[in-house]
Inverse folding.
């Protein structure tokens, strides 16, 4: 299995909703990442998990809450989002935190209404 | 600070033309990785190549080739005999190795449109 699987593919949520994005990989990778990509912009790093511990938080607002329950799974919990948070959320993994070779999922397209 | 510059915002070519996508980077690190990714309209980022800072050998993979020149901090990507399926946004990216993890910094991307 050489894939990173993200669910759901599309999500529409209200500003008062709570939802979660899920990311899964079975390649034995020990680093996992969340990126946010606005339309016509490059992906921007949000969080890095290394060996299931949060290594990097790029000053992301607390309405985004990451969680890494095990080495294969990465969640992004969403609460009280704003319309400007609408974007494509991409998950990625790599063999280790210091080794390049990132595999990206196909993303969750989030719309906040 | 790290920076990746892709000066070409959009390129349009006719099928079978060759096209070169430029990438210039800035980093103070001596060890780093450079990448090219393709993002078709469906949204996923497709890995094309990784090159580490100590390997300046150029690479060819089918119709794709890459020219890494450390002296000019450039990592350019050429598609030979372009095809309609090559239409996508192409990102050049640079990895920075921090104390605890690596961070991938993307350029702004070049949108390639290949027409018949």
């Amino acid at each position: 299995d050489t894939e990173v699987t993200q669910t759901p593919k599309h999500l529409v949520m209200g500003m008062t909703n709570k939802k979660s994005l899920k990311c899964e990989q079975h390649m034995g990778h020990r680093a996992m990442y969340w990126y946010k990509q606005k339309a016509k912009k490059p992906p921007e790093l949000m969080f890095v998990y290394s060996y299931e511990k949060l290594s990097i938080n790029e000053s992301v607002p607390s309405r985004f809450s990451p969680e890494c329950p095990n080495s294969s799974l990465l969640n992004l919990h969403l609460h009280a989002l704003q319309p400007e948070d609408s974007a494509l959320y991409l998950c990625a993994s790599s063999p280790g935190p210091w080794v390049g070779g990132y595999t990206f999922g196909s993303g969750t397209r989030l719309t906040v209404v | 600070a790290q920076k990746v510059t892709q000066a070409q915002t959009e390129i349009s070519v006719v099928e079978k033309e060759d096209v070169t996508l430029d990438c210039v980077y800035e980093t103070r690190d001596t060890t780093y990785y450079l990448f090219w990714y393709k993002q078709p309209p469906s949204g996923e980022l497709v890995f094309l190549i990784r090159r580490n800072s100590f390997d300046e050998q150029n690479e060819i993979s089918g119709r794709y080739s890459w020219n890494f020149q450390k002296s000019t901090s450039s990592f350019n990507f050429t598609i030979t005999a372009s095809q309609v399926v090559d239409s996508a946004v192409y990102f050049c990216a640079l990895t920075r190795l921090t104390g605890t993890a690596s961070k991938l910094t993307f350029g702004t991307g070049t949108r390639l449109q290949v027409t018949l």
User: Anything to note?
Assistant: Chain A is about 0% helix and 55% strand. The first strand of chain A starts at residue 4 and ends at 7. The radius of gyration of chain A is 13 Å. The interface with chain B takes residues 31, 33, 41-45, 48, 50, 55-56, 88, 90, 92, 94, 97-107, 109 of chain A (CB under 8 Å).
